[in-house]
Amino acid sequence: MVIKKSDSKQYPNRIMEIDFLRGIAIILMMLFHFLYDLQAFYNIPIPSWNHFWYYEGKLSAILFMLLAGISCTFSKNNLIRGFKVFLIGMLLTIGTYILMPEEYIRFGILHLLGLSMILFHYIRVIPLLWTGVLSIMIIILGIIMDRITINTWLLSPIGLIHDSFNSMDYYPLFPWFGVFLIGTLIGRTVYKEKKSIFNKTCQDGLLNFLGRHSLFIYLIHQPIFLLILYVVFHFILKIG
Question: Which residues lie in coiled coils (predicted)?
Fold first, then answer.
């Protein structure tokens, strides 16, 4: 990955390869959501939906979690950032409940990332070894809890749900907070100097641009996709 020195000066406080990877994650996420819209709203069968594309969507989410964890080690205001992200997640909950009450977002990736930032604010002083142990324990407990069902949805934020639980986007604290913590471990070791690990980082192109504006793109891409698909399926195809 190569970048000119003049390009890096445009964003002196950013680590370009992290923006680059976040840009890849946003592309993977948008592709997954576009295919989801085709299948869920227009009954277009997507080959390998429960295999390849399922894991493609999970890869995107895991990248976001790891990168968010890394970024938290650079920030001095994770508490405020966490509350803002969690609030946006709650607004999505309200919006999706109004539009799709049967599968609205109860605890999606923004809820997870926001609450993870808040929790990290309070546990950031834990030694690296114990942070690693904690992350592994959370992941293992999450795998175990995924096999357990209860009679209420109130514990869904931690990963305990009932049989009929349904949510468009669901990333509970167990196991996914463990993945976020692994990101903080990477930030505290690989990026302990808070600068790029490359002597020359990636060129500041489209992926870096998407990475810098990932939250905004996350919020607007689905309404745009749904509008485009509505126009295509209700007007263009009827005319054709």
Answer: none
Which pTM does this prediction carry? 0.91
Three-state SS for 173-230 is HHHHHHHHHHHHHHHHHCCCCCCCCCCCCCCCCHHHHHHHCHHHHHHHHHHHHHHHHH
Contact 156, 106 (CB under 8 A): yes
For the chain, give me the number of helices (H) and strands (E)?
Answer: 10, 0
- Show Cβ contacts of residue 133 under 8 Å, excluding neighbours closer than 6 positions: none
Q: Is the pLDDT of residue 89 over 80?
A: yes
pLDDT category at 10 given cuts 50, 70, 90 is: low
Cis, bond preceding 175 (omega within 30 deg of 0): yes
CA torsion 161-162-167-171 (nearest 10°) is 20
Q: Which of 149, 171, 190 is the last residue of a domain?
A: 190
CA 100 to chain centre: 21
CB 85 within 8 A of CB 38: no
Domain interval for residue 39: 1-74+200-240
25-60 in b/e burial notation, b at 16+ Cβ within 10 A?
A: bbbbbbebbbbbbbeeeeeeeeeeeeeebeeebeeb
Residues 183 and 83 in one domain: yes
Number of structural domains the chain divides into:
2
